[in-house]
UniProtKB/TrEMBL annotation:
UniProt KW keywords: Cytoplasm, GTP-binding, Hydrolase, Nucleotide-binding, Ribonucleoprotein, RNA-binding, Signal recognition particle
Protein name as it appears in the record: Signal recognition particle protein
GO cellular component, one term: signal recognition particle
Entry similarity comment: Belongs to the GTP-binding SRP family. SRP54 subfamily.
Binding, GTP: 107-114, 189-193, 247-250
Domain AAA+ ATPase: from-to ranges: 99-300
Class in the EC hierarchy, top level: hydrolase
Taxonomic placement: Bacteria, Bacillati, Chloroflexota, Chloroflexia, Candidatus Thermobaculales
Compartmental location: Cytoplasm
Free-text comment about domains: Composed of three domains: the N-terminal N domain, which is responsible for interactions with the ribosome, the central G domain, which binds GTP, and the C-terminal M domain, which binds the RNA and the signal sequence of the RNC.
Gene Ontology biological-process annotations: SRP-dependent cotranslational protein targeting to membrane
Species annotation: Thermobaculum terrenum (strain ATCC BAA-798 / CCMEE 7001 / YNP1)
Catalytic activity, EC: 3.6.5.4
Length: 441
């Protein structure tokens, strides 16, 4: 996310690291780079101009902060303004005082509305809710089928009446069904069009007026840039949108829409889609996203993801094995599975401060297929070999390579790395902390 913007901003800050004191010319140079970064990121022109003015004003006020270096001062101010631009405080999804809570999803065709409906349902279920998905798009039978398929794969109920019943009637019937079934949330997947037209908006107004949704959530594609901002304005003016869900943010290296939409429309981004997986969906927390944009990482989100996959009993057992140097390839495989559930490796590394930009500067390729290769090698071993990798000699290595579709060199590399890991664990537990090998060794 925001790859181009992050790199450009970090380039601007890097030029200030050698400065001993902040001069007017340093500020002007840094702000010029920030302005160019925003323009290249497709940020709304008016928003970018106001953003720069705010930064300049804040820097003038903070000249007395002698404890900070020039780069730190500007990074701090830019971070504050990014947080402000994204909405300062997290805007959470509203909940109805009396169930069911009704979320009406609206947006253009191709914005990812149906997939987002399923992701939202899964997110809500993880919070303890009992959601119902409603197929209210009567113009695309494929959309109904897609929602039913997604609901089935996630074990979430889907309400549908086909394509012959008006959407507002489907919505009211679905709400009655939710009440009878003690379901807590209703998610309406409404019809989209290739472009905004009067008939589309009139239909959405009828649905809105009939069911009085708790939230009207506009789903927009981040990769459409300023077009997403224009769409948000039009939908908001007609429907009174209460929140935005921004999809495909993981594929948006610029970030202009995310940084402009609230400032232009006044509507907060409440949720963001960060990948294709059903669980690649999270609330937008302004200060965390601002930190990601500036390459400062997002440790809190990383910790929360880890905790979601955390098994306390297994963690204690793992700690014991590490202390007693009995950590096996079986344990290593389990850790790989936990890490995979947390998200793509490249995305996890982006959350570590400075790592994402370092990867890009050194042009390092973080490929999740390498993890699949490691998995295949381990799965080609017998249980005894996973427990006692020291028994894996020449003929066994050849068999494992053939069974995993890899080479003997790949098997050797994995076993050597695992051997180094075990030695490091022994040294750490005995109090002799070794020099850690390179992160990408």
């Amino acid at each position: 996310m925001f790859e181009n913007l992050t790199d450009r901003l970090q380039g601007a800050f890097d030029k200030l690291t050698s400065k001993g004191k902040l001069q007017e010319s340093d500020v002007d140079l840094a702000l010029r780079e920030v302005r160019i970064a925003l323009m290249e990121a497709d940020v709304n022109l008016k928003v970018a101009k106001q953003f720069i003015n705010q930064i300049k004003e804040k820097i003038s006020e903070q000249r007395a902060l002698e404890s900070l270096t020039p780069a730190q001062q500007i990074i701090q101010v830019v971070h504050q303004e990014l947080v402000s631009l994204l909405g300062s405080d997290q805007c959470k999804l509203e909940t109805a005082s009396t169930p069911p809570t009704i979320y009406m999803l609206v947006g253009l065709q191709g914005s990812g509305k149906t997939t987002t409906a399923a992701k939202l349902a899964l997110y809500l279920r993880k919070q303890g809710a009992r959601p119902l998905l409603v197929a209210a798009d009567i113009y695309r039978p494929a959309a109904i089928k897609q929602l039913q398929t997604l609901g089935g794969s996630l074990n979430i109920p889907v309400y549908s009446e086909g394509t012959s019943v008006p959407p507002e009637n489907i919505a009211t019937n679905a709400i009655d069904f939710a009440k009878q079934s003690s379901l807590t949330h209703v998610i309406l997947d409404t019809a989209g069009r290739l472009h905004i037209d009067e008939a589309m908006m009139a239909e959405l107004v009828r649905v809105r007026d009939k069911v009085s949704p708790t939230e009207i959530l506009l789903v927009v594609d981040a990769m459409t840039g300023q077009e997403a901002v224009k769409v948000a304005e039009q939908f908001h003016n007609t429907l009174g949108v209460t929140g935005v869900i921004m999809t495909k943010l993981d594929g948006d290296a610029r970030g202009g829409a995310a940084l402009s939409i609230r400032a232009v429309t006044g509507v907060p981004i409440k949720m963001i889609g960060t990948g294709e997986r059903p669980d690649a969906f999270e609330p937008l927390i302004p200060d965390r996203l601002a930190s990601r944009i500036l390459g400062l990482g997002d440790m809190l989100t990383l910790i929360e993801r880890a905790q979601a996959e955390f098994d306390e009993r297994k963690a204690k057992e793992l700690e014991r094995k590490m202390r007693t140097a009995t950590f096996t390839l079986e344990d290593f495989y389990e850790q790989l599975q936990t890490m995979k559930r947390m998200g793509p490796l490249s995305q996890l590394l982006e959350m570590l401060p400075g790592v994402g930009s370092a990867i890009r500067r050194q042009d390092l390729q973080i490929d999740d297929r390498e993890l699949k290769k490691v998995e295949a090698i381990i799965l080609s071993m017998t249980p005894e070999e996973r427990q006692h990798p020291e028994i894996i000699k020449g003929s066994r290595r050849r068999r494992i390579a053939a069974g995993s579709g890899t080479t003997v060199a790949d098997v050797n590399a994995l076993l050597n790395q695992f051997n180094q890991m075990q030695k490091m664990m022994k040294q750490i537990t005995s109090g002799r902390i070794p020099k850690l090998p390179g992160l990408f060794g």
